[in-house]
Amino acid sequence: MNNKTIKEPIRKKWIWIAVIILFAGNVPWYLPVGRIKPIIFGFPFWAFVSLLFSLAFCGLVSWVCLKEWNVVEDQEEEGVEQ
After folding, report:
1. Residues whose CB is less than 8 angstroms from the CB of residue 46 and which lie 6 or more positions away in sequence, other chains included
2. What is the pLDDT of residues 66-80, one digit of tens each?
3. What are the backbone angles phi and psi of residue 6, rounded to the nearest 5°?
4. pTM of the complete model
5. TM spans, by residue (predicted)?
6. Which residues contact 4 (CB under 8 A, 6 or more apart)?
7. Gap between the Cα atoms of 53 and 30, Å rounded
8. Residue 22: CB atoms within 10 Å
9. How many other CB atoms are there within 10 angstroms of residue 14's CB atom?
10. What digits encode the pLDDT tens for the residues 2-60?
11. How far is 3 from 37, CA to CA, in rounded Å?
12. Is 8 helix (H, G, I), strand (E, B) or coil?
């Protein structure tokens, strides 16, 4: 019998804080208006910043889904009653 505890990331405040920070950083509203230079790998600076925050956000969400989310459906699919 698998005795994994049920974990739901919605109850963890640090996950919400990280999501809000990464989501707010994804839109570079904090940069000066018209900021194009420097050009990094052929993209404007704001696009590079947005890409980095998007990758970090996707990584966090993937990690949370794989490691921090353990729900009852797994046990129900195996036919194990609680």
Report:
1. 28, 31, 35, 36
2. 877 766 665 666 665
3. -80, 125
4. 0.67
5. 14-31, 43-66
6. 70, 74, 75
7. 13
8. 19
9. 8
10. 555 666 667 778 888 999 999 888 887 777 776 667 887 888 888 888 889 999 999 99
11. 54
12. coil
